[in-house]
Recover the amino acids of this structure.
């Protein structure tokens, strides 16, 4: 039997089908690459989905259950106004319960992602890969440098790489940034000019800090430089002293706009040298806004002798993007389970089980000191534990 539909009904069906297709096409995209033009960085999203009846027929990332989780992620990201989704953490856990001759499997998928809105006029992508592919696979990248001799090849330590870098001038400028690193630069661009960082810290809000020596700190959000400062409140004096003293950073007086050797300069000299700028001044700091950037100069009083009047000298600086709102910096704390695992594996009879891969698997928020005070590499676990490994074995 053939049913003839009224024209209005047919038109409505076509219209509904078109709307459905448009909505599907407008879902946020999960990308393998960082976008070139970002309008806004939205609140990260976390999604945990339990699939009770999971058919284990191959890699989780290629399963229908995982594809449905990615589709749900795209829908929730779209609901928050995102254009682009970058996967930052993917954990898949398969649980199998065996009873006599039968077994049942379930799958728990945990995904963390960063959301972005991008420029309407530029929706292109850069050449910088993300931590995970759009399919949920972790991107495995390895980078080595080697020193070759006629008889053998050995990996080059970060301290050796650092000592062979010819550094840019220690200058702070609105036009050229700090050490010729402009705000908005990536970590790769920073490393290309300054060499390996002395220490890397990942914060609770997923921002990353790269430290060069003990007194120069670069803060990145979504792999874009947002702030450079000569001070960091996260580490106490013992923490900073665990970082190696570094030539070119700790032994040099930085300049302002190439005019004066600014560090420890009297406040009067700094004021006169920067007179071309509109300066907002208080008793202990100056703030200069220029080219959508903000430079904060901090001063302290020093007493040459007990009888002399105090001298106000420049001690620290911070250069930020005007739109960047610096929040209180905190490191992610260890959970009680992570603490118990750490203490257990630091006992002498369990120390051989404490390998570097095991540590990073159990406590992924572990931070790394590339160039420590002994010129070697150490791993910072929580706030108080420093561990050193010989290859992957605890030493």
């Amino acid at each position: 039997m053939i049913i003839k539909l009224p024209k209005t009904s047919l038109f409505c069906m076509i219209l509904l089908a078109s709307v459905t297709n448009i909505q599907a096409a407008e879902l946020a995209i999960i990308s393998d690459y960082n976008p070139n033009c970002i309008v806004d960085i939205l609140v990260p999203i976390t999604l945990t989905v339990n699939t009770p009846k999971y058919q284990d027929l191959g890699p989780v990332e290629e399963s229908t259950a995982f594809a449905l989780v990615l589709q749900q992620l795209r829908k929730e990201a779209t609901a928050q106004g995102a254009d682009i989704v970058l996967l930052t953490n993917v954990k898949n856990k398969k649980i199998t319960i065996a009873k006599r001759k039968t077994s049942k499997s379930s799958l728990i998928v945990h995904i963390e992602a960063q959301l972005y809105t991008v420029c309407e006029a530029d929706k292109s992508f850069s050449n910088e890969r993300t931590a995970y592919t759009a399919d949920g696979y972790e991107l495995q990248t390895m980078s080595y440098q080697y020193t070759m001799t006629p008889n053998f090849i050995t990996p080059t330590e970060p301290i050796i790489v650092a000592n062979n870098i010819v550094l840019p001038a220690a200058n702070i400028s609105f036009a050229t940034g700090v050490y010729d690193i402009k705000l908005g630069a990536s970590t790769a661009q920073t490393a290309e000019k300054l060499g390996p960082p002395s220490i890397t810290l990942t914060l609770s809000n997923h921002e990353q800090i790269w430290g060069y020596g003990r007194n120069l700190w670069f803060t990145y959000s979504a792999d874009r430089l947002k702030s450079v400062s000569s001070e960091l409140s996260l580490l106490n004096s013992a923490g900073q002293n665990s970082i190696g003293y570094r030539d070119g950073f700790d032994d040099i007086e930085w300049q302002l706009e190439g005019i004066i050797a600014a560090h420890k300069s009297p406040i009067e000299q700094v004021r006169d040298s920067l007179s071309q700028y509109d300066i907002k001044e208080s008793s202990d700091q100056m703030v200069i806004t220029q080219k959508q950037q903000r430079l904060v100069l901090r001063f302290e009083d020093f007493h040459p002798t007990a009888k002399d009047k105090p001298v106000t000298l420049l001690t620290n600086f911070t250069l930020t993007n005007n739109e960047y709102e610096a929040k209180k910096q905190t490191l992610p704390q260890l959970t009680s389970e992570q603490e118990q695992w750490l203490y257990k594996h630091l006992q002498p009879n369990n120390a051989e089980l404490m390998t570097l891969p095991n540590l990073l698997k159990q406590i992924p928020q572990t931070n790394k000191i590339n160039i420590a005070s002994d010129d070697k590499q150490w791993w910072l676990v929580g706030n108080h534990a420093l561990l050193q490994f010989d290859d992957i074995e605890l030493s």
In short: The chain is about 20% helix and 35% strand. Residues 213 and 337 are 33 Å apart (CA to CA).
